[in-house]
Backbone:
């Protein structure tokens, strides 16, 4: 129906990337905040936990699994929501897949931040003595990205019906923080509880992927990514269902 | 309707109807009420290829709804629409590639990036090859005076510059049909004349069909030979703009200023019968020539006038008469 998805992705990625390059301050801020995070978080964790393996775990989570501090879904969701609300007449009268545009535009914008954060993470882990397989990490990163895209798509579908999605974004971020291990480490959580948590998407997306990367447990990594993919598909199709309803509403009301 | 037999119809609209349903919620408890607003009612017209059509009407007359239906954003309740042999709301790729859409209050430019980046993005979206892109960009930049603006971020442009870039962007892929909804909103005279010149030239050279919606009559008068006039969702006129005054017959516009009202009772009857427009002490009304004597005698009886003028009405006065009344002059010319 639309133009070549590869070309759309490429063009929107370049546009987003150029936008970051255009604002030099954004790059400096990214570098500065990463350095701050490195010092503040590591000194904090070392003082609280007195445990290097726990620090490695938290570094993997914070710098590799959540490279932009904020989950990626927030930025994609904010961008696509604005496209739906403000730019319905403009964006949707073009032969363009607007969601694909939003995803890669945001990816382009966040690219430098992610690269800085991931490289810093690898650097710290190297000093802490933890080795992570780069290919395994790339595989995990793609799975995480797909999961985030589906969450963003699902949340965006509500913008046809609600004026503000801020609340939904906050609730989802809270779930991320609480169950991914980012707010407090899940390493010492009771094993019985893990029986349930191992199927919870936010825990898989954060804790399980971090642990499998740290332990070089490729089976656990593959299993976690499979669960994430399963959730991504379900959430995406749910989003698609609500989107179709929303588009019907817009077609009759004008948006 | 066949206005020019040798031309092919690119837009065909038949018995188009569109309603909006608003749900009115009770303040505390009670039943929800549905309010149905008829945005377009029984609208039929056709547009020939290469025409420059003005879409006129007061606020809320259905202009934007009509453009949204023609661009595939909205789906009508009933009626048939074919634009360039496509049903717009199916949003087929080839259809979307053949149209250009501009909504005066929305932007298609990437706000934080230089203008050139928005053009390059559209180059990919509309699958324009490199050679054609360079040629089009050169032509558009020259005609709209964008050469020095291409590398300036959109947010740093003045309103006029931004709108010129916006117009250039919708013509980049050489669309067959361009829909412009209130594009001249907030323009000064210099920007307007530059854009008028560009639109006229593109329409003439590339035979692009342009549907230009506006509530500013002078804009449409300068650009379009033919107009579609909508009022309260109904099509009231579709034809040559110059033919419009003739429909009214021998209509005169009377305007005068008064010092005081001499007879209040007769004043009320006069107001009811002729519905004149009054601003402070200035009164203006349109009358048929046959009633001229009667009206003049009434004015002298009711008002103590200080100045008086009678002339042939301009288009604006005629349109305001159409807008105020429920008249339906002609479905098609």
Residues:
């Amino acid at each position: 129906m639309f133009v070549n998805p590869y070309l759309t992705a490429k063009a929107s990625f370049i546009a987003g990337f150029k936008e970051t390059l255009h604002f030099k301050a954004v790059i400096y801020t990214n570098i500065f905040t990463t350095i701050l995070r490195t010092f503040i978080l590591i000194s904090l964790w070392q003082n609280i936990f007195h445990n290097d393996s726990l620090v490695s775990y938290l570094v993997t989570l914070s710098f590799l699994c959540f490279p932009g501090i904020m989950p990626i879904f927030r930025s994609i969701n904010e961008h696509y929501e604005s496209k739906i609300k403000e730019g319905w007449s403009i964006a949707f009268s073009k032969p363009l897949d607007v969601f694909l545009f939003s995803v890669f535009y945001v990816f382009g914008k966040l690219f430098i931040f992610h690269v800085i954060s991931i490289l810093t993470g690898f650097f710290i882990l190297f000093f802490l003595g933890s080795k992570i397989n780069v290919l395994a990490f790339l595989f995990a990163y793609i799975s995480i990205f797909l999961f985030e895209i589906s969450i963003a798509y699902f949340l965006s579908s509500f913008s046809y019906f609600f004026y503000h999605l801020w609340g939904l974004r906050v609730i989802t971020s809270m779930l991320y923080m609480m169950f991914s291990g980012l707010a407090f480490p899940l390493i010492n959580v009771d094993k019985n509880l893990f029986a349930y948590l191992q199927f919870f998407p936010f825990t898989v997306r954060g804790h399980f992927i971090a642990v499998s990367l740290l332990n070089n447990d490729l089976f656990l990594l593959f299993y976690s990514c499979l669960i994430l993919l399963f959730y991504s598909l379900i959430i995406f199709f749910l989003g698609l269902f609500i989107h179709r309803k929303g588009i019907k509403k817009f077609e009759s009301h004008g948006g | 309707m066949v206005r020019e037999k040798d031309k092919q119809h690119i837009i065909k609209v038949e018995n188009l109807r569109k309603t909006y349903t608003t749900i009115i919620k009770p303040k505390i408890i009670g039943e929800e009420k549905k309010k149905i607003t008829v945005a377009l009612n029984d609208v039929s017209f056709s547009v020939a290829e290469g025409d420059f059509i003005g879409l006129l009407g007061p606020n809320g007359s259905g202009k934007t709804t009509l453009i949204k239906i023609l661009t595939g954003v909205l789906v009508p309740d009933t009626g048939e629409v074919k634009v360039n042999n496509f049903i717009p709301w199916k949003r087929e790729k080839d259809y979307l590639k053949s149209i250009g859409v501009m909504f005066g209050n929305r932007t298609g430019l990437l706000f934080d990036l230089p203008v050139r980046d928005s053009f390059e993005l559209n180059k990919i979206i509309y699958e324009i090859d490199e050679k054609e892109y360079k040629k089009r960009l050169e032509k558009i930049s020259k005609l709209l005076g964008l050469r020095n603006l291409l590398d300036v971020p959109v947010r740093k442009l003045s309103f006029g510059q931004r709108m010129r870039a916006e117009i250039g962007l919708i013509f980049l892929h050489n669309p067959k049909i361009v829909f412009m909804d209130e594009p001249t909103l907030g323009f000064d005279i210099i920007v307007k004349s530059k854009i008028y010149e560009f639109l006229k030239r593109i329409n003439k050279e590339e035979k692009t069909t342009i549907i230009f919606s506006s509530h500013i009559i002078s804009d449409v008068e300068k650009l379009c030979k033919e107009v579609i006039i909508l009022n309260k969702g109904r099509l009231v006129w579709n034809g040559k703009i110059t033919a419009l005054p003739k429909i009214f017959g021998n209509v005169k516009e009377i305007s005068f200023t008064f010092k005081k009202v001499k007879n209040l009772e007769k004043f009320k009857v006069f107001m009811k019968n002729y519905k004149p427009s009054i601003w402070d002490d200035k009164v203006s009304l349109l009358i048929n020539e046959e009633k001229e004597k009667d009206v003049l005698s009434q004015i002298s009886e009711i008002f103590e006038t200080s100045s008086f003028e009678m002339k042939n009405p301009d288009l604006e006065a005629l349109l305001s008469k159409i807008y105020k009344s429920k008249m339906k002059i002609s479905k098609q010319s």
Q: What stands out?
A: The interface with chain B takes residues 1-4, 7-8, 10-12, 15, 18-19, 22-23, 86-90, 92-96, 250-255 of chain A (CB under 8 Å). Chain A is about 80% helix and 0% strand.
